[in-house]
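Lab notes, practical 5.
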Amino acid sequence: MKAIVHKANTRGYFDHGWLQTAHTFSFADYYDPERVHFGALRVLNDDRIAPGTGFGMHAHRNMEIISIPLRGGLEHRDSMGHVSVLHKGEVQVMSAGTGVHHSESNLSKDETTEFLQIWVVPAVENVEPRYVNAPIEKLIVPNQISTIVYPYSAHHPEENEKRLWIYQRAWFSIAKLDKGKKVHYRLYNADSFGVYLFVINGAIDAESYALEKRDGIGIGDAEEFDITAREDSTVLLIEVPPVE
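Output from the prediction step:
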């Protein structure tokens, strides 16, 4: 097993006043040649938006963008005509494809919005842009690894109607664990580059690696591994292919 550990305090951190953000991988003004991506996982930003502020309308192209709110509400507006507010317990998936403009705002007057913004390099480019919001609370089974986002299935299109998906052979899962519980992860795809774990809350052991809140670890060359919670914990797992 190969592993690369990214402790929370080693991320690129910026305080813009209205936005506090920590970048696991190189992004905007943060650049580290050793932390550009993990396989097809290109961006993992931990964002906090002050009340009444947000990202103005901006463009994306040929990227799969997944937003996971952790606290507060996140209003989304885009050039496709969508307007919605994303809350904890939901996930947003957007395929930028040929190009889309969108904004993200915190409409609250007193509560900070916290969310994870994640980008995955797509397997196919220049697709028609798409956007989906969906609740995931019922999908998450305590003390198990619960998959919430799947790859697009060209061979079984009916499966795409039943679940969230992206244009890449990537799987997003969440493990909500009680203290002392152990779970076992086995790769969906033997050809995957690896699995990136991000500790949203709590403290875990990923095999022999001790991780705390907002730490991350990329695990490669391993078809399976164990996660043990040292305290009540929530962990995001992202299995991705190599970048082609």
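Observations recorded by the TA: The mean pLDDT is 97. The longest helix spans residues 157-160.
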